[in-house]
Amino acid sequence: MPLYLEIIVCVCLLIGGFFLLLGSYGLARLPDIYMRLHSPTKASTLGITGVLVASMIYQSYSKGFLSIQEFLITLFLLITAPVAANMIAKTALHHRTKALEKTKGQELMASIRERHAPNSIQDAD
């Protein structure tokens, strides 16, 4: 493997490892569920993307053709992580999980809880 590819793979692994460590630390240290959602959805997703990009580069070189499996995994993670975080946040709001006083946007939580589903076309008649 050429030196420049080894350097690129090492840099991607270091960046990915740093963000995974940062995401894990944030998940353990942040105090409430609304703050904890940011850590795995942002930092950890970026970290695993770095690791998968490094794997894609290495596998593409060793096989001799573009390795698409890592790209598909990365794409799947980048699509599903925000959706999962949104569902977790909606569940926490639905169950009226209390946020700490220092959590920002608490005035929005009350307005979101009071929203109702829009009326259907038949109800409008």
TrEMBL record:
Residue ranges of the TM segments: 6-28, 71-89
Molecular function terms, GO-annotated: sodium:proton antiporter activity
Alphabetic keyword roster: Membrane, Transmembrane, Transmembrane helix
Keyword flag Membrane: yes
Classification via Pfam families: PhaG_MnhG_YufB (PF03334)
Origin: domain of life: Bacteria
Keyword Transmembrane helix: yes
Protein name: Monovalent cation/proton antiporter, MnhG/PhaG subunit
Lineage: Bacteria, Pseudomonadati, Pseudomonadota, Gammaproteobacteria, Oceanospirillales
